[in-house]
Design brief:
This protein is α/β, with parallel strands linked by helices. It contains nine helices and eight strands. A hairpin with a 2-residue loop joins strand 1 and strand 2. The longest helix is centred in the N-terminal third of the chain and has 16 residues. Bound molecules: S-adenosylmethionine (SAM). S-adenosylmethionine (SAM) binds next to helix 2 and strand 8.
């Protein structure tokens, strides 16, 4: 099911079935996502979904999940697309393989951390070397929470206005908020309807 708020579109469903609802030729200018990390996190989000909504989602292995991400990148991006990806440091090898298999190069990796001190990586990847990334690492490393998103995307702010951005695991709407702040069109996907409702509220300007 697709919800539309102004020009923004948010899909309620499992990422596995994304292609059922969006035309083959829909490709994004930017992707920013914080997908589930590893086996434990895949299980965690299924459990939360069941607890919040009573719905039991399909169980998939981590290998299948990584393949879904690769296929999504291959199918839904164009030559100029820039990808931002947040992921736990333990999976650096797997993430390098994801980008390699999708013919993307990693332009930079910045480390950030949660309030509890747990570190994670923020990747930026594209098909070309990117001259906009001077000082990017430093700015990201010293930011927290929503400010991290602003720091990560700051070098691209000027070129993001009027473009499309997709978060295939949009949760409560962190990236939707960025899309509004930057004047972008947002496309989201989320299998937990309760979390998705927060994204919808943000897009309707009810929760800012
Ligand atoms: C780490 S959270 C993302 C947090 C997000 N950045 C936010 O603003 O809330 C990962 C999200 O992916 C969703 N998710 C996990 N597996 C999914 C799947 N197979 N299809 C769609 N969404 C999924 C979870 O419900 C969760 O909201």
């Amino acid at each position: 099911m697709i919800y539309q708020v102004n020009q923004h579109k948010i899909r309620y469903g499992d990422i596995i079935d994304f292609d059922e609802d969006f035309a083959e030729d829909l490709k994004f200018d930017f992707i920013y996502s914080d997908p589930p990390w590893g086996v434990g996190n895949l299980k965690y989000w299924r459990t939360i979904n069941k607890r919040n909504t009573g719905i039991i989602s399909k169980e998939i292995t981590f290998a299948v999940f990584l393949k879904i991400i690769i296929d999504f990148i291959k199918k839904r991006t164009k030559q100029e697309t820039i990808i931002f990806l947040e992921y736990g440091q333990r999976w650096r090898k797997e993430i390098a393989e994801v980008f390699n298999n999708a013919d993307y190069i990693i332009n930079g990796i910045a480390e950030s951390e949660y309030g509890n001190g747990n570190p994670y990586d923020i990747y930026i990847a594209s098909k070309e070397n990117n001259p906009l990334l001077d000082n990017w690492y430093y700015a990201v490393k010293n930011a927290r929470k929503y400010k991290t998103l602003l720091a990560v995307t700051e070098p691209f702010k000027a070129i993001m206005r009027g473009k499309t951005i997709c978060d295939p695991f949009c949760g409560k709407g962190y990236v939707a908020r960025l899309a509004l702040d930057y004047g972008m069109t947002f496309y989201g996907n989320e299998f937990n309807e309760k979390r998705l409702n927060s994204t919808i509220k943000i897009l309707k300007n009810e929760d800012i």
